[in-house]
Amino acid sequence: MTEERRRYFRIDDSMGVSYRCIGSEEAKVFAEQTQANSGTFDFAANFDNRIQTLLDACKIQAPVAAELVDLINKKLNFVIAQMDVDSELMHKIAYSLKQVNVSACGMAFANEEKLDKGQLLQLDIMLHPSELHIAAMAKVVECMPLNIDEAEGDNTCFVRVDFAEVNSNDQELLIQHIVKRQSEILKQKRRMSE
């Protein structure tokens, strides 16, 4: 795991995050489903990846066309989401926008609930602005109380988690998101220094 951590870099970002604590039996089922799905081709994730890659390239050559395609893609995703109202509604209600420090192997964020070290979590992450979803099982590595001057709102703890199980397609989406955000952050720093 230490070598894996060195392969991925971290960024600060805003993401929709929801989680629920799970026991060892649920973790086993989640791991089995993740491994079973890793070998299959996820058409939806593949389409999203390809659309996002082409949109990024198109934004340079034809920004208006890229915006149009992006809006159509978002509308299509909205219609698809409405077809599965129950589960999507639960996701959207449960998500809270959090400032996170994230890499492809884990994340850290301020939280209102104290979590025990070693607790397993089923994480649902919504990337912004693409609104792509990532499901992962994570293990709490550390949960430290925040000082009074660090606490924001109801967030009184700082949680660090390692991703224990992530579908390979979701991990690829997360890596692409991090690389893209890193590039945007570097561009912004260059502009500010000019």
What does this molecule look like?
By secondary structure, the protein is of the alpha+beta class. The protein has a domain at 10-41 and 92-193: predicted glycosyltransferase like domains (Thrombin, subunit H, Beta Barrel), CATH 2.40.10.220. The chain has six helices and six strands, in the order H-E-H-H-H-H-E-E-E-E-E-H. It has helices at 2-7, 24-38, 43-61, 63-83, 85-94, 168-193; strands at 11-22, 96-103, 106-111, 120-126, 133-145, 157-166. A six-stranded antiparallel beta barrel has the order 1-2-3-6-5-4. Helix 3 (43-61) runs antiparallel to helix 4. The longest helix is centred in the last third of the chain and has 26 residues, at 168-193. It is globular, with a radius of gyration of 18 Å. It starts with a helix and ends with a helix. The relative contact order is 0.20. InterPro entries: PilZ_domain (IPR009875). It comes from Oceanicoccus sagamiensis. Residues 97-178 form the PilZ domain. This is PilZ domain-containing protein.
